[in-house]
Amino acid sequence: MENCIFCKIARKELPSTIVYEDDKVIAFNDINPVAPVHVLIIPKIHIKNVMELDEQNADIMKDIHLAAKNIAVKLGIDEKGFRLINNCGEEAGQTVFHLHYHLIGGKKLGQGLI
Ligand code: 5GP
Ligand code: ZN
Fold first, then answer.
1. Whole-structure pTM value
2. Which residue intervals define the domain HIT in the entry (predicted)?
3. Atom nearest to 94 CA in ligand 1
């Protein structure tokens, strides 16, 4: 996708602090962190959000979750715990329409879901 900022980050056309990368997934620090650890995990291919997943592309969910586990160990938050958040669609607060998971941790998080 030509004008998608996360595609540009994945192609390294925009700067980011990359914390993990493999052939299908890239993860980088959120520009506006809400916790000591706030990483965005994205597929390298453009998928708008969960509603664009199908039988052909959904294997990426496995790769994203294995990346999350890897990053949690690397950043030392695997034992204390962390949260993986996906916002799907405008009402959920999705502002960048390229599938991404927020990996948030490094402090005691609130109990609420909303
Ligand atoms: P959403 O609200 O769509 O779930 O999350 C989008 C996230 O992307 C936000 O937390 C926002 O801070 C982050 N973000 C937006 N633009 C950029 C950018 O150019 N670079 C980085 N690293 N993060 C961004
Ligand atoms: Zn994109």
1. 0.98
2. 5-114
3. 3
